[in-house]
Design a protein that fits this description.
heterodimer, A: about 130 residues, alpha/beta, Transcription Regulator spoIIAA, 6-stranded mixed sheet, 3 helices, B: about 180 residues, alpha+beta, Heat Shock Protein 90, 5-stranded antiparallel sheet, 6 helices, 5 strands, about 20% strand
Amino acid sequence: MNQDLNLAGSVSTPAIQSDWQAGRLCMQGDSYPENSYELFGPVIGWVEAYLAQESRPLELCLELVYLNTSSVKVMMDIFDLLEEAYQGGRRVEVVWHYDARNDRIAELAEEFKEDCSYPFVIRAMEVAP
Amino acid sequence: MDLLTLRNTYLQQHIMLCFNGPISRSLIEEIGHALRNYLNNQSAAPSAAMDVFAVYIEMTQNIRHYATRREYGEEDATATIAVARDSEGRYQVSAGNLVEDADGQRLVAAVESLAPLDAAALKRAYKQQLRRPRDESADSGAGLGLIDMARKSTRPLVASLQPLSSGQSFFSLTATI
């Protein structure tokens, strides 16, 4: 059986929840750990296991705010895993919600999207001031 | 201690925030937090505040990774960090650290090679670097950080290297946002 992830976020690491039953992986917050592969290793493992062992769709719901370059590299690896699955006929989707006042995260999400052929939704959220 | 001279130097150079000493992971977070608060209180545009913060993180994490890789002791693993505003209101993020001279020269060359690149060329360089296989010995996206800082800057990055009597050199990098 695969263990779902439920990591509380910290100042420099996002909160991460996976739901094997629902086929969903969610992350919220800032991500700038010094060693991103240490943090995201289990996340990549979960995605690989889910894609290999299940045939159901996978949805990534993101509310990431800031990513350092080392986190960007890991996210690209995760998006690449989804792309490979999608090319193999799998239903996958990314939905990235961002604070409407912060264009930078939308620009980053757009750059990721350029390299993905699966549904990749970037949606502004209105946040109370 | 002559704090007044220190204070006047800061004022003359429009330094809003400055740190000098051994830099730990938690200090990077604490100073980053203070920097974000400061920028918010200054009503900096959210995108500029984000860029200043991002450049600060890349610079300081690069310094930490370098010190770790070189197995520097606490005294050498120090960083000098300053965030200032220039006369035109642009933010300047600077960080400096001790390096081996050959490493410093490579860094300066890397920074200078980015200077002539326009936004489109920097984006291509960024994506290329992102796709490069991860070096197992390096635990960070080294190299990517410099290109990322250049992309977030409104002017080319400025790097300098000053030789020290110890045989090492002091590398400093400034990004203007």
